[in-house]
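We treat protein structure as text, and this decision shapes the records that our systems exchange. Such a record has a labelled line for the sequence and another for the backbone structure tokens. The record that follows is passed on verbatim for readers who wish to inspect the format:
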Amino acid sequence: MMKEKHFMKKYSRENLKDIQAIVQEKTGAAIVPDRKPAGYKIRKMAFLAGSLLCLVSLSVFAYAKFSGLNGDLAGFASAYQGDGRFEIVIINDSDKELELQDDVKVMQWSTSKEVEGDSGKIRMSGQTILPHSQGVVSIDISEGYDVKAMEENLPEGDWYYFILTNNNFAFGQDWMCSFDFDIEQTEDVMDRSADFMEQIAGEQRTEEKQYGTGELVFPEWSWPTVSRKVSGLYGIRENGTHSDHINIAGTAGDEIYAVADGVVLEAAFESYSGNFIVVDLGDGITAKYGHLKEIKVSEGEEIKQGQVIAILGQTGMATGPNLMFAVSINGEEVNPFVE
């Protein structure tokens, strides 16, 4: 299976104290103190029906959420070549030339701090990507960093990332790219990157569409958010993949409500769902809320129907602000929505 990577947007904020704060501001991801993202070791999984893609991801394969170039698209993916060498596949789908500077920061997610080493010794080449084209940027950190120690000392659930810039790290001109040390062919990354960009373009072309109308599977449940626009249905979707959840389009910052009384089983982060909550509703029924900007409850907490448990966002693999909502009964997924 392929690597599971993480989707993020280009971020743009002034006077933020550290990288986590920047990511929180732009991606909507609430960084929970003293808790590492659960299930978040960059692992392999299928893209779409067999592969994922991470924006600005720098390793075996980087599935990155496409950052914007003044509203246009640029996609970053990566392949680790071994011996501290990386190749970043960049798809510049904008009308502007993207010229990255030969200045790179190597960061650790859990600390939001630069990894110990000498960034001045990082070697970088091929930084200019023409409009509407694909290119490869090479980064070699071997002379400035102890690559073996980085690999051996990385805790479970943590990861590294590069920050790339085209304007002296003036936020709004930077991109994040997570990476690990598994090796993959650059050509494979390029193919999957192109496929993923096409998928994103297709989703944008069909952005204006009819919304589903109906009720939740259990009529006594409360509706989980402000909007009732069901933008993605359970089952087989247009791209041929199976969805175990529905998506309810909304506005970032909308409140998310508990559909029924229950106990929070998990409140964490994963690459697909972003910030998410799983709630035990009794009788073998669980509900999962994903793509959250902020989580308002903790694991083990008892919650009441209608209680505000989260804030709607666009974390994980979300192409716009929405709530991912899934239901299972005795471990078997069911359609949460009845039209």
Notes: Residues 2-204 form one domain. Helices lie at 19-27, 147-153, 186-205. Residues 68 and 74 are 6 Å apart (CA to CA).
